[in-house]
Amino acid sequence: MPDIIQIPQQRQGKPLGRAYELMLNSIGTEEFGSTVRECLMSVAAGIRRVYLFEATGPDTSTLQYYSCEPRLIELLPAYSQSYIRMDPVRDAYSAAPAAGDMALLRIRPSDIPTPGFRRRFFEDCGIVERLSIIQRGHEAWRVVNLARHASTGCFSDIEIDALVELAGLALPMLPLNRRDKLAGVQLSVAQLEDRFASRYEGLTTRERQVCARAAIGMSVEATALDLGVAKTSVLTYRRRAYGRLKVTSPYELCALVTH
Question: pTM of the full predicted structure?
Answer without folding.
Answer: 0.72
